[in-house]
Amino acid sequence: MHSTRVLFTEPGRVELRREVLPELSGDDLHVRTRMSLISSGTERSCLLGEFERPSHWASWVRHPFAPGYSAVGEVIATGPTAARHRPGDRVVLRRSHQSHAVVSEGSVYPVPDEIGDEAATWFALSAIAQHAVRRTGVLFGKPVAVAGLGPLGQLVLQYAAVAGASEIFAVARGEARLDAATQHGATTVLSGGIETATAAVTELTAGEGVGVAYDVTGAPDALAALAGLTRESGTLVLVGDTLWPGQQVLGGTVLRRAQTVIGIHDSDIPRATAGRHLWDTFAENVKLFFQLQAQGRMKVEDLVTHTFPAAEAEAAYKVVAAPDNDAIGVLLDWREFDR
Questions:
Q1: 182 contact partners, CB below 8 Å, separation of at least 6
Q2: Alpha carbon distance 312, 174 (integer Å)
Q3: 9, 16, 34, 143: which has the fewest C-beta neighbours closer than 10 Å?
Q4: SS3 letters for 138-154?
Q5: What is the rounded CA–CA span in Å between residue 55 and residue 119?
Q6: Is residue 18 within a helix (H) or strand (E), and if so which, with residue range?
């Protein structure tokens, strides 16, 4: 068995490399990938190698590096003890961009028939966004701000709307991303930097500011700036880690306004039910994501701005790597690859 994988062989270089897959054993599944979603902000940074050294990023990204962690595929064979899946089942899996994968049965999640491949690929980013909103506590009736409207920020915005936020201020520089935010629940969109948005948000909230502000920018100076549009005793939520942690500061406003800062990372999402984690496991996040899509309360297919055949992965990453690009959802289509 063979698979073809996307690799960043060195900073700025994308290749497809053919590899041998292990034989099936135990509860293994052989999954043929249908589509995979590029996590554009993260994978752009991994491709270009533009991050602080030493840092979490520098210890994680070592070239050659296999990017990607969000794919939908079809089970084509099962190991001798696999009991919950059979050939033909569609599943989502956290694996790098590759045409085929051998994975344990417990590491995949079933995809309902009513969910399309394009929508299913968003499951991993959705789980992170959902975790950010869960960790914030009750949003019902609170005004919130979301800064940074790439794929993850667009999902945070939608979950805040589902959770009952009274107003959602969306802050970004790109008009296309602001337009998408308007179509997915933002009540006010503000073009430009956070400092520019602060005066508008303060005025629109009668001088109080928002109750919760989500920093999904990846910029080291954004968190301190967001404190200025967040009310006293409000909450700042840092979703993901900046590429330049040595430049990140809280700022005096956080202290003077007695604000709470919550850090959100994929690794913090519990993978199994234990103790207080009864309904916020990764599996439950995925299940709820599919339910909300089926109910029409979450929309992601219209966030897909680019789709490339997997054989053209290099072209896909040129789009992602371009400075100030307006790409949101960028998909690799594997359905005609390596069949």
A1: 170, 189
A2: 26
A3: 9
A4: CCCCCEEEEECCCHHHH
A5: 33
A6: strand 13-20
Instruction: Look at residue 215 and give its three-state secondary structure.
Output: strand
Q: Are 67 and 10 spatial neighbours (Cβ–Cβ below 8 Å)?
A: no
Q: Whole-angstrom Cα distance, residue 156 to residue 140?
A: 15
Q: Express each pLDDT in 114-148 by its tens digit.
A: 999 999 999 999 999 999 999 999 999 999 999 99
Q: Tell me the DSSP string of 290-337.
A: HHHHHTTS---GGGEEEEEEGGGHHHHHHHHHSTT----EEEEE-TTS
CATH for the stretch 125-268 = 3.40.50.720
**What does the domain layout of the chain look like in residue ranges?**
2-111+300-337, 125-268
Structure tokens at 53: 């050294």
Query: What class, spelled out in words, does domain 2-111+300-337 have in CATH?
Result: alpha beta
pLDDT-above-90 percentage for the chain = 89
**What is the residue whose two structure tokens read 């979490």?**
56
Nearest to 180, CA basis, from 200, 159, 150: 150
pTM, 2 dp: 0.95
pLDDT tens by residue, 160-198? 999 999 999 999 998 999 999 999 999 999 998 899 999
| Rounded mean pLDDT, 189-216 | 95
